[in-house]
Amino acid sequence: MRITELETIVIQQPGPPRVIEDSIHRIASGRDLVVRLHTDTGIYGTFTLSISGYGGELTRQLFEVEMRKLVVGQDASMPRRLRRHLFNETEYYGVSGLGVFGISVIDYCVWDILGKARDASVAQLLGQYRTEIPAYGMVGWLNYPVDELVVRCQRAIDAGYRAVKVKVGAPDLADDLRRLEAVRDALGPEIHVMVDANQIHPVDEAIRRGNAYEPYDIFWYEEPLRPWMNTEYGELRAAVNVPIATGENVYGKYAVLDLLERRGVDILQPDARRAGGVMEIMETSALADAYNVRIATHGGWQHNCQLLAAMTNSIYLEASGHTHDECWLEPVRIVDGMVQVPDRPGFGLEYREDWLAERRVDGSRS
What we know:
By secondary structure, this protein is of the alpha/beta class. Helix content is 39%, strand content 21%. The protein has twelve helices and 15 strands. The chain has helices at 56-71, 79-94, 98-118, 122-126, 146-158, 173-187, 203-213, 230-239, 253-261, 278-290, 301-308, 353-359, and strands spanning 3-12, 19-21, 26-28, 31-39, 44-50, 132-140, 163-167, 192-196, 218-222, 244-246, 267-268, 294-297, 314-319, 333-335, 338-340. Helix 9 (253-261) runs parallel beside helix 10.
């Protein structure tokens, strides 16, 4: 089953333009990149990633210029061999960063192909453990005024979520606490609230804020430190009672192992783009399980529900809070806070071709 072509489709994101901010990023909504791998059997695999904000055109060129020449002619039925081939060929520039983005996306596409070829979902191929997984809505961006923050969190709960994530890391801790108090008062004690600081703090400030968040019954405290600060993550975890979550900016299982050995994490968050692909995430999950660490993936939620469904230590799936169900022939469903894992072949996600055609931006290549 040979790969015959890599197709890229740039689409304009639906909805009115918006700007979202966390403690270090300001991102304007814009475009997504759909990557499709075609095979000589007529089966193709698909993955989509945002190219809004930082490095969007560079990301598109990665697939157009580099990844296409590395994958065409390769055997899609041997995903581990293809993954090793890509790691070897991109090693000079890609042990982290965009090179791993390329490997990750290709690997997701290959697993979509494998599932379709074998008439099985990706979860079934990986050894399925569950049919549904809890989801939280990533809705609480830092630039939202308190009133809007509460409305958006409540809207996510009304849409079926039973947990939300709120950005923290404002210059003044008092602003963080006002936001958390308003959200907790509005949603009540039964809803899980996670907070995400997006790498903004030195370790002493991260400890101070983690202890300050504890009275608000925070389910986890996410990424207050830079991703290479594994020793400091160990110090942080020992100093606060709120569970520590991190990992979205960690590239591959070997870097994860160092974090685990330093006892710096309670909940590991492998990212769909940075972790190295489907099997790398599954191998990372097994490492985490050996350290009694739980998994809550970051990004790519419609795809990652399949991976989480094949893990014994998975606890949460991050979702955006707005699903844009109109783009899918059969969307992923959230019922009473739980994502229902599709049992359709591959990842179970197919775009409506009329929707793609309407959103397609000139310059896409097929």
